Amino acid sequence: MDKSAYSFSTKKDKTENHIIVVWVDNESGVLARVIGLFSGRGYNIDSLAVAEIDKKKNISRITISTSGTLQVLQQIKLQLGKLVPVHKVADFPKNKKTLLREMALLKVVSTKVKLEKAKKLCKKYKYTILDKTEKSFVLEISALKKEIDELVKKLQPLGLASTSRTGVVAMTKGPEIYKQN
Amino acid sequence: MAKLMTGAAMVFKALEDQGVSHIFGYPGGAVLPIYDELKNNKKIKHILVRHEQGAGHAAEGYARSTGKAGVILVTSGPGATNTVTALTDALMDSVPLVCITGQVPTHLIGTDAFQECDTTGITRPCTKHNWLVKDINKLSTILHKAFEVATSGRPGPVLIDIPKDIQFKKGKYIKPKKLKDKNNKTGVKINGEDINIEKAIDLIKKSSKPMVYTGGGVINSGPKATELLREFISLTGFPITSTLLGLGAFPGNDNHFLGMLGMHGTYEANNAMHDCDLMINIGARFDDRITGKIDEFSPNSKKIHIDIDPSSINKNVEVDLAIVGDVKLVLDRMILTIKKRYPNFIDSNKQSTSLWWKQIEIWRKKNSLGFLNNKDVIKPQYAIQRLYELTKTQDAFITTEVGQHQMWAAQHYKFNKPNRWMTSGGLGTMGYGLPAAIGVQVANPGKLVIDIAGEASVLMTMQEMSTAVQYKLPIKIFIINNQYMGMVRQWQELLHEKNYSESYTEALPDFVKLAEAYGCVGIRANKPDELDKKIEEMLSVNKPVIFDCVVDKEENCYPMIPSGKPHNQMLLGKQDEDETISEEGKILV
Predict the structure, then answer these.
(1) Which position has the higher pLDDT, B549 or A6?
(2) Which residues contact B185 (CB under 8 A, 6 or more apart)?
(3) DSSP output for B455-466
């Protein structure tokens, strides 16, 4: 049984994975505010991607992959919306209407034979070789998280030496965009 | 060309433009330029506290008794960290505070300079927003924005950290009017579209067991909201209860009022919450001290929740109808709609709720706030009852510390006006009441201000008596002295096999002598028959008073919902204690 200092809940709701996108003023401390909200209230962050998207308006876009019950996901959106530097918050459903991408750089260091084998494995994915030596190569892949997971797993026995991943970013299909909420 | 101004001068110019008349603070190295300016300022009075936490709670008392923002001015490092408890307290209880902190000069930030700390980092989770000012030309707009954020929407604390070099630098001052911020999310007025108001009235019309549950949001919405709440109740004839923070929004002696609800609420309020078929939550947040066991909380009711903060809705309890908006605007629309749709609502409604009121009267007969009085020792409840009877015509302002005395005060002191009751609810900060009383007295000169205190709590911020004496603030510290941390002792008795671990204070000061040492008046009451005379004596003194009311050491605070139990399983007194708390419940304090 769950025991806590105050009360226990017998409700066990299903958790879901959602992509929350937040448009914020690109100012010092803003990322700490967003992350602090998650850690302070015990929400999960599975991945995080941040960059400035509008230099003139000074806006950054934060993409957070998170999981929780529907009630928690609702709270995340409402709590984010209360932060002063936050302009809007969007919940991107994980369905056919949403485009999701994650980028990874993978370095494989191995023998010639294994390097060839590794390259063959990659054929199934869209990738670019960014750097190549006799003993190694670095490839760039842009795909879904689970595809990159899959590739990483396959490359491991073939000499995967270094992995760098960006976290997921998202965009809706079609002409619609998220308006100010 | 506009006249240039130093950062320090700008601080005072902005405070003046925001209508600030008092600030609570403590000087130190990193704010000295601002304190230099204070000397030149005739409009703003500075109250020198003895500890920065005291400044925070005093500003809270000031804010909650006036509805205006309370302002704090402290130095960097320890000055800033000492305010953290008060800022957190204000965040939990929605109190508007503007805290201005000094910081080491910009070029020293990050070097672990003397009295440097990451103030904005430390206070980020305990403020609505905070700023580190690195550009003198942004200072004035940040100061104005700070007041706007603190006082609008759901009020709360904000902090502005100003490095010392910025206080010296000269820049252009911008007046508050010129502020234009597109990203203004704080001015939530009303989102409750008419359709939701209509739906609410449908539910109200259908209900035969209604219950109105109000909170601090009504008081934060202003005096108009309180008036409208009274009108709403007289229009519907519904029973009403209140959270700890909402006391005073509705008259405590009105027959519609069932008393406070929750862990130490009345039998009738909690049972009515449990059995009602319609719950109307106005400006409250379903706190865990209110709901008890959440999955058995009011199982058969439709729930309407009116709140200015959308994140309060469906956070703890899922509701059937949410109206996001300012209480006074929503109540105004609801009253108009009822009057228009059902001109004879009260008459038609009396019939449908008559059985419900009959049931409530049966619960009321339990007299759950009753206690066995004693001729030889002062019962704490009796002390508060006498204090109430002897002060009720004086429009008194009451603050409290945290613990048993706080609950007894909430139960036995009846409030008829808003902004008369200042207590630390969400955070439960022992040591809140004395400095809060100072802030209340500063804001309300000539009024009677009493801190109903416990001897353990009051020692946490006792140093502020020196502030009260310096500014001739005749606050009355009414200590319910049982020598125990009473609430801790009560839990240990009921849940921890009477293992009174560290809850008894072996060496208390002599409070009468302590009062004299501070230069105020000390009074002690030992016996019930001398209590009235001593209270009268306290009220007749136009000086700060420490009143040592020596009470029964082992009295428990009832009624009580034991942890892990729903509203309809309350302990009413000693006879219930042993049978009701299960092994499971003991874990759940």
Answers:
(1) B549
(2) A81, A82, A84, A86, B153
(3) HHHHTTSGGGHH
Fold of B4-178: Rossmann fold (3.40.50)
- CA pair distance A110, A119, nearest whole angstrom: 12
- Note the pLDDT tens digit of each residue in B44-99: 999 999 999 999 999 999 999 999 999 999 999 999 999 999 999 999 999 999 99
CA-nearest residue to A82 within chain B is B185
Specify the CATH number of the domain A16-92. Answer: 3.30.70.260
CB contact under 8 A, A84 and B129: yes
- Cβ distance A28 to B132 less than 8 Å, yes or no, reads yes
Identify all chain B residues contacting A5, using CB atoms and an 8 Å cutoff: 588-589
In chain A, where are the structural domains located? 16-92, 98-169
Q: Is B206 an annotated catalytic residue? A: no
Say what the pTM is: 0.94
Q: Does residue A69 belong to the interface with chain B, where contact is any CB pair within 8 Å?
A: no
Fold annotation for A98-169: Alpha-Beta Plaits (3.30.70)
Rounding to the nearest 10 degrees, give the CA dihedral for residues B360, B365, B370, B374: 170
Cβ contact B588–A7 (<8 Å): yes
Question: CA-CA distance, B410 to B400, in Å (whole number)?
Answer: 9
Q: pLDDT per residue over A56-74, tens digit each?
A: 999 999 999 999 999 999 9
Of chain A, the percentage scoring pLDDT greater than 70 comes to 93
Contact state of A5 with B589 under an 8 Å Cβ cutoff: yes
Chain B residues 135-154 within an 8 A CB cutoff of chain A: 149
Cβ–Cβ gap A6/B295 under 8 Å: no
The CATH code that applies to domain B194-364 is: 3.40.50.1220
> Is there a catalytic annotation at residue B115?
yes
Listed by start position, the domains of chain B span: 4-178, 194-364, 380-550
Instruction: Mention every residue, 6+ apart, whose C-beta is less than 8 A from residue B416.
Output: B248, B251, B252, B253
Do the domains B4-178 and B194-364 sit in the same CATH topology, yes or no?
A: yes
Radius of gyration of chain B (CA): 25
ipTM of this complex > 0.95? Answer: no
Q: Which of B315, B496, B582 to mutate to test the interface with A (most CBs of A within 10 A)?
A: B315
Q: Pick the catalytic residue: B13, B115, B224, B463? A: B115
pLDDT over threshold 80, residue A167 = yes
Please say if B164 is a catalytic residue: yes
CA of A113 vs chain B CAs: smallest distance (Å): 51
pLDDT at B253: 94
